[in-house]
Write a structure and sequence with these properties.
The chain is of the alpha+beta class and 370 residues long. The protein is 51% helix and 16% strand.
């Protein structure tokens, strides 16, 4: 256990190391929520990671469900033991030697007005230096901090930096470990999975597709609009991820919600009569959705050693997820049109479009106000 003076010097040394090693750390925002970075230098690994308070226990002296600087200082040893059980960093693969912790500090991630008065934060930044007996090779990370109900569904986007190489992995409770720099096939698998998850867990993208398909104008129409959407969002996804175009999410996200409202109102106004011109409208909206889909890559970064491959794999995952969703929707629509009386089919389309318009309008207001 370090003395107060030693901890102050330790913080200063750590921040100087972070600056020299270009770890993405800033005093006002040490690490974005759900993210972390590891810089490998010789026989050491410098780690900065956002830790959710809900993953820890035994520190909450004032029973507010948060954590503050006084609680961190009072329970450092106990918190350190819990963090040791949550983070496992090895060299030379999953069976290689564990790193020794030479330095550790825990700092509030978002210090601001009121922090001095004891107001807590929902997470803090863990700073560590691990060391081995020789150079770090094939780093392997295992993270087990999503066990509590309050952290269910959370993710940790953890980037490892080795010289000019970087590699990103998204860790969850279900997939809590990753072998870094394991080769192109591992990168392809990870980014394909990430792309599929992003589209299948993105309700706005799925609702837009559902609103487009529910018009039920036939297979030629469905093929045309799905192709238009795919080509459009692929263009802006690639362009945004590579830095050729950019738009703030505060603008893109409300526009995506507005595209759902627009498509739903077009369903209610023109219905199947819009089939001839609908692909062009879907293409324009798809450009917006591509910018939204690219957000996850822009925020977390591509694997620098396999940049083109990781981008390609992410797009493949998006398309696979989209194909799975569209296939399920079309199968359901075909089944409904065969079993439902003809006079009920337009009512189904109008009812679904009205619900989509209301949902999109709610998201639009929510995203503008937020």
């Amino acid at each position: 256990m370090m003395s107060g003076k030693s901890w102050r010097w330790g913080r200063l040394v750590w921040l100087m190391l972070c600056a020299m090693l270009a770890v993405p750390v800033a005093w006002a925002h040490l690490m974005p929520s759900g993210q972390g970075a590891i810089r490998l230098v010789g026989d050491s690994a410098y780690v900065t990671v956002a830790v959710p308070v809900a993953a820890l226990a035994g520190f909450d002296d004032n029973h507010d469900g948060l954590i503050n600087a006084a609680e961190i200082n009072a329970h450092r040893d106990m918190l350190s033991m819990q963090l040791n059980a949550m983070f496992e960093l090895r060299s030379n693969g999953p069976h290689g030697p564990l790193g020794r912790v030479l330095f550790e500090d825990m700092l509030l991630s978002h210090p601001g007005p009121g922090t001095e008065q004891g107001q807590g934060e929902a997470e803090f930044a863990l700073l560590r230096r691990y060391q081995w007996d020789g150079p770090v090779t094939a780093p392997y990370i295992s993270v087990r901090m999503f066990h509590a109900d309050a952290t269910a569904g959370k993710r940790l986007a953890l980037q490892v930096i080795r010289g000019d190489e970087t590699e990103l992995a998204v860790l969850t409770r279900e997939r809590h470990a990753h072998q870094y720099f394991a080769g192109p096939w591992a990168v392809f698998q990870d980014f394909t999975r990430l792309g599929a998850e992003h589209i299948l867990l993105g309700p706005d993208h799925l609702l837009f597709l559902l609103t487009v398909l529910v018009v039920g104008a036939g297979w030629r129409y469905w093929l045309a609009v799905v192709t238009s959407f795919t080509v459009a969002h692929s263009i802006t996804l690639v362009a945004s991820a590579l830095g050729y175009v950019s738009a703030p999410s505060a603008v893109v996200e409300p526009l995506i919600a507005a595209s759902i409202v627009l498509m739903a109102l077009d369903n209610l106004w023109r219905g199947p009569a819009s089939a001839r011109h609908r692909p062009w409208l879907v293409f324009a909206c798809g450009l917006l959705h591509g910018l939204g889909i690219a957000t996850v890559l822009v925020e977390m970064g591509l694997s620098s050693g396999n940049r083109a491959l990781s981008l390609f794999a992410f797009n493949v995952g998006v398309e696979l997820g989209q194909v799975a969703f569209v296939s399920a929707v079309l199968a359901l629509l075909v089944l409904v049109t065969r079993r439902l009386p003809a006079h009920w089919q337009p009512r189904l389309m109008r009812g679904g479009s009205a619900v989509a318009a209301a949902t999109g309008a709610w998201w639009l207001v929510e995203r503008i106000v937020a």
